[in-house]
Amino acid sequence: MASRVEVVERIRATYPKGTVLICDRMNDPRPVPSGTQGVVDFVDDIGTIHCIFDNGRHIGLIEGVDEFHIVK
Question: Against a cut of 0.90, is the pTM above it?
Answer without folding.
Answer: yes
